[in-house]
Amino acid sequence: MDVDSMALLAILGMALATYAVRASGFFLVQRLPRSRFLDGFLHHLPGAMFIALVTPPVLSGGPPTWAGALAVVGTAALKIPLLFSLLAGAGTVALLRYLL
Amino acid sequence: MSSVGRARRAGDLPSEVIFTLVGFRHGFLAALPLGMGAATFGALFGFLADQRGLSALESLLMSGLVFAGASQLLALELWADPPSIILLSLGAAFVNLRFMMMAAALRPWLAPLPPATAYGSLLLLVDMNFALSLGEIRRGKRDAAYFVGAGFLLWLIWIASTGFGFAFGHLLEDPEAWGLDFLVAACFLAMLVPLFERHRSIAPWAMAAGASLLAWHFLPGASYLLVGALAGATTGALLDGRR
After folding, report:
1. From the CA of A72, how many Å to the nearest CA of chain B?
2. pLDDT one-digit tens code per residue, A50-77
3. B214 and B133 within one domain
4. How high is the ipTM of this complex?
5. Where are the transmembrane segments (chain B) (predicted)?
6. Which residues neighbour B107 within 8 Å (Cβ) at sequence distance 6 or greater?
7. Each residue of B146-195: pLDDT tens digit?
8. Which candidate, A69, A88, B156, B227, has a CA 20 to 30 Å from the CA of B4?
């Protein structure tokens, strides 16, 4: 349980840089002039971000992750509790990896 | 923990945002199912940190202070003895640039709060409490402490699972056989469903998917996330403007 001083400085640098990113988005958006484009951009941002986050890894994962993604989206659309969607997805992936 | 602020500007801001212990507890409990995905990721980080030669305390400090999985995994890739402070800090900022856009999107809850509360809350901003809170905002909920409650639970789980992975990671031979590597993507797939709008989402989401795939193949690292997000959101904003 020891901490190297250079490692500690590197961790603190990462923490500061990450917080600066977290805080600056809010700082900037309060000072930018409001516009229809900015409102639309911020409205569409979360969905676009999640799509961009999941599409490459899910598609490159082959049939198990394709089926797992369908299982998650299908169960989530039924409005059952999130936990079951996640279990259905991981279970589908595990099953197909075992079978294929 | 109760403070009330009024929105300073008209528009999409709720007229009155509150910040209460009840909201904190709601967020804390709502994040429990997502904790499973966070715990898997955190345990993976702890396991890999052990492999890369970080001490237990260094791993726990990084999880507690940085609290951002992708950048922590990148740091392990770039870790050296001694580690490069500048390289690791810049790398973390770049990988975590998406937090900038998330913080901007949380404006309806953050802007009416006292600045110290808003900037303090942002210490706990991660993907999952952002997604949960965005859903609450769209449903017209006004208690911004929900965001902090969800973030606080995820932070606790993140540290605990880092320690767990560090101590026991070598015991689980093959997490992929159990589909555990899929849990993080599964969290975001599930949260996409309520965001879908039949008349507004299809073109931006297709653009986001296409751009992210192109960047995944041709650009380094995690840039596919930013490229896809920017392409999709820009498409959506332009199409909305033409309506």
Report:
1. 6
2. 899 899 999 999 999 999 999 999 999 9
3. no
4. 0.85
5. 28-48, 60-79, 86-110, 116-134, 146-171, 177-195
6. A26, A29, A30, A42, B13
7. 999 999 999 999 999 999 999 998 787 777 888 888 887 888 898 899 88
8. B156
